[in-house]
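This part of the workshop introduces the protein records we will be handling. As an example, a complete record with its sequence and its structure tokens follows.
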Amino acid sequence: MINVTIQNFETEVIAASMTQPILIDFWAPWCGPCKSLGPILEQLETDYAGRFTLVKINSDDEQQLAGAFGIRSIPTCILMMGGKPVDGFMGAQTAGQIKAFLDKHLPSDGELAAEAEADEAQELLASGDKQAALEKLADALATNPGNDDARFDYVRLLIELGGWEEAEAALAPKLAEIPRKLRFEALAQWLDATKFAATGPYADWTEAQFEEKIAANKRDFETRFAKARLLIAAGLWTVAMDELLEIIMRDKKWAEEAPRKTMVALLELMTPPKPKADAQVSGKTAAGIEVMGKAAVQEDPQAALVSTYRRRLSMMLN
């Protein structure tokens, strides 16, 4: 339990909530219900063993904070996650009621364990140990099959390492969903292109063969599309998109828009993952309190590349 004031609010609440759920208890010394609620909250923080952090704000002493959250009566509890308030309740509650409230929002022990394994996998990937990372991601999925981030990274790595059958099996549940999530559809497109490049009728073609056939007929979309898929399998994604744009420029609807769909998939796969939220790069907190000047942000070169190709695709389609 942490006592919070305007001086440490940014650090102990906003920044801390980026990585750990924070339950704010607005109270006052004269408030009878606050006195009964406080010990229950403190015991639950102990019982939940690190799944959330309890902070207490004296609403009489910290009227700016109370006003920023629109506190009208106390006790009032606000749950903060990712720098933002996600839910809350007013008045004294029983331990059972508060547990139900917390369990609705907090990750389970299994989800936390899976997240930790997925984080370890990212560290292993950064060090170049792809096989160990793959095993960690498999463990994360076994612990929590609902972890879509781990599933995405797992399938992506399987495709890179040639585990096509395992990738298909791990993708299947997500491809059966309606609607499909774009990032899993993108993985399916990449997997299909990789298999096509290895086993399709153009598997043994050289670049010269493709160039000769396309030069003879610039509207030979089948050959162009096959070339693009082989380029995808080879990891030459920007070159593949240039070829796909050539088809789209000449016939937007060819093959039920397969070139457009493939390019959208590549753009999704190339888009850098969103960085974890950082409270330091913001002008205001989620509560609307001015905290810091906005830091200058330089666009990631990969993000800039993706933006360029998105604009090119948009121009072709309009």
